[in-house]
Design a protein that fits this description.
Blueprint: H1 2-25, E1 33-34, E2 44-45, E3 50-51, E4 62-63, E5 69-70, E6 79-80, E7 85-87, E8 94-96, E9 101-102, E10 111-112, E11 117-118, E12 128-129, E13 134-136, E14 143-145, E15 150-151, E16 160-161, E17 167-168, E18 178-179, E19 184-186, E20 193-195, E21 214-215, E22 226-227, E23 232-234, E24 241-243, E25 248-249, E26 258-259, E27 265-266, E28 275-276, E29 281-283, E30 290-292, E31 297-298, E32 307-308, E33 314-315, E34 325-326, E35 331-333, E36 340-342, E37 347-348, E38 357-358, E39 364-365, E40 375-376, E41 381-383, E42 390-392
Antiparallel strand pairs: 1-2, 3-4, 5-6, 7-8, 9-10, 11-12, 13-14, 15-16, 17-18, 19-20, 21-22, 23-24, 25-26, 27-28, 29-30, 31-32, 33-34, 35-36, 37-38, 39-40, 41-42
Length: 400
């Protein structure tokens, strides 16, 4: 008789435990939806720019990663932007690449067209080669003619000055130079043929011609050539030094202005070296300045790009943040990490916890959102399914 009574008590206690556990678990949300806390019975769509797949925590939708993934509301996964586009900051739509840039499927960002390749349109997945006699402009958006006195063939990367003292190109866009007739020599600009008596070259020693990044402002080139200082290069006529454009630099050991590299370096023009963006910022695509990291992101120290705030309790409400802020107890960060929201009723979060936890056991509730601890129901009462209020217990907890 004692054994049978003991078995009955065990069965009753097991049934009560299953009831309490099922109350804690609540409804199962399908992929693409989430609930505001453990034990809640309402499933909501994940916001655009976020997702939740099967097996993930049902109380959180994760933001799409990288620069080329987006999602619609209620997504169980993120999808990649098509070639020629990248995701906007909110990861809700794909935006076309700027003119002068392109993106193919395996690229993570829009890349600038290199060399003599251009792209005049937006949303491109490839670049167009400039024909002979032309080169790409600085913005890589159009092909411009080589200046008179210069030429470029298909195999050349730059417009070069006609060589020697008898070759010229009289018009823009030349693919090769023409030879002066016998008895004539080229003028200084290599644009016309002159009699030797008509030009200062009659006394000019061609071995003393100014070399790259050296200039001579005097007519005829009789004075010594002067070297251009760092941050500048000689103009085509070798008569003055001009500053490197924004986004470029030149040290004394470089022949040409070089582009700043990496996500953090920039120049505003005429620079001998690149500067680094301060914490909370990254360089613009053309390396001409710095822009703030978007809300929900931060950058500091050794980080080379803007990163989204990592944990469920960190957020960044303003642009240009060097560090993320911590949500106070009773709250958690929203999906985009831009603000703190209260833990839903029925759950709580202490300062050391990284997620809002549902009240445990059958006698604990959190009647209001934003709780930092759970309240205990009085004797004879138990918590409802949502852990939001105490209800009168309909069955005894123990049988003696």
């Amino acid at each position: 008789m004692t054994f049978e009574l003991s078995s009955a008590i065990k069965v009753l206690l097991l049934a009560l435990f299953i009831q309490d556990t099922s109350a804690d678990i609540g409804v199962h949300c399908p992929p693409g939806t989430y609930k505001t806390g453990y034990g809640m019975k309402e499933c909501r769509l994940c916001p655009a720019g976020t997702y939740r797949s099967e097996g993930m925590d049902m109380t959180n939708c994760k933001p799409c990663k990288g620069r080329i993934t987006i999602s619609e509301p209620g997504s169980e996964c993120c999808r990649s932007c098509p070639p020629g586009t990248v995701a906007n900051k909110a990861k809700t739509e794909c935006l076309p690449c700027y003119p002068g840039t392109y993106r193919i499927s395996h690229m993570k960002v829009c890349n600038r067209c290199e060399g003599n390749l251009i792209q005049p349109d937006i949303g491109a997945s490839s670049c167009i080669a400039c024909p002979a006699g032309m080169v790409a402009n600085n913005n890589k958006t159009e092909c411009v003619n080589c200046e008179a006195g210069r030429f470029r063939s298909d195999k050349m990367s730059l417009c070069l000055r006609c060589p020697g003292y008898r070759s010229i190109s009289a018009t823009e866009g030349a693919t090769k130079c023409e030879e002066c007739p016998k008895g004539l020599i080229a003028n200084w600009g290599k644009t016309a043929c002159l009699h030797r008596s008509e030009t200062a070259f009659s006394k000019y020693n061609f071995s003393d011609k100014c070399k790259r990044n050296t200039i001579n402002a005097e007519s005829g080139g009789f004075a010594p050539c002067k070297e251009c200082p760092p941050g500048t290069v000689a103009n085509d006529e070798k008569t003055e030094c001009v500053g490197c454009p924004a986004g470029f630099y030149r040290t004394k050991y470089m022949l040409l202005c070089g582009r700043c590299v990496g996500h953090l370096t920039y120049t505003t023009g005429g620079a001998a070296e690149c500067s680094e963006c301060p914490d909370g910022q990254v360089a613009t695509w053309d390396k001409s300045g710095c822009v703030n990291c978007p809300t929900g992101n931060y950058r500091s120290g050794t980080l080379r790009s803007c990163h989204i705030c990592q944990t469920n309790t960190e957020y960044s409400p303003t642009e240009g943040a060097a560090n993320c802020l911590k949500c106070p107890p009773g709250t958690k960060a929203n999906a985009l990490r831009t603000a703190c929201v209260q833990c839903p009723a029925g759950s709580f979060r202490m300062d050391h916890m990284i997620v809002c936890q549902p009240c445990r056991g059958s006698q604990f509730i959190a009647s209001q959102p934003g709780a930092i601890e759970c309240e205990k129901c009085p004797s004879g009462f138990k918590s409802n399914d949502g852990k939001t209020q105490c209800v009168e217990s309909s069955s005894p907890r123990h049988i003696y």
